[in-house]
Amino acid sequence: MVEVQAMHQEVMRKLEESAAKNNHVANKHRRVKLFQERDMVMIFLRKERFPIDTYNKLKMKYGYVQDAEENQ
């Protein structure tokens, strides 16, 4: 019984190491985005964000917002 638990712990440790390594490789190309209050940020609104029967594919669905915290 102890051998099975030890093997289980070893497998879990290897899985965690592998996941951490994969995350490091996958996140290597990402850059940190730091926003401060009053920064201009561009937003894209998806179809799901509009109330029913108000979505029109010809309407403007993106734009600049000055203060992202006020609009959440």
Q: If you had to describe this structure to a student in words, what would you say it looks like?
A:
With 72 residues, the protein is α+β, with helices and mostly antiparallel strands. It is 35% helix and 11% strand. The chain contains one helix and two strands, in the order αββ. The protein has a two-stranded antiparallel ribbon with strand order 1-2. The longest helix has 25 residues, at 2-26. It is elongated, with a radius of gyration of 23 Å.
User: Spatial order of the strands in the main sheet?
Assistant: 1-2
**Which percent band covers the strand fraction?**
5-15%
Helix content: 25-40%
- What is the mean predicted local confidence, pLDDT? 79
Helix/strand order: HEE
> What would you report as the Rg, rounded to the nearest angstrom?
23 Å
First-residue to last-residue Cα separation:
53 Å
Q: Please count the helical segments.
A: 1
Q: Sum up the overall morphology in one term.
A: elongated
Structural class: alpha+beta
- pLDDT under 50 segments (min length 5)? none
Report the biggest beta sheet as strand number plus sense, adding barrel if it closes: 2 strands, antiparallel
The count of β-strands is 2
Keywords:
alpha+beta; two-stranded antiparallel sheet; 72 residues
Task: Tell me the layout of helices and strands.
Elements lengths: L1 H25 L14 E4 L17 E4 L7
Antiparallel strand pairs: 1-2
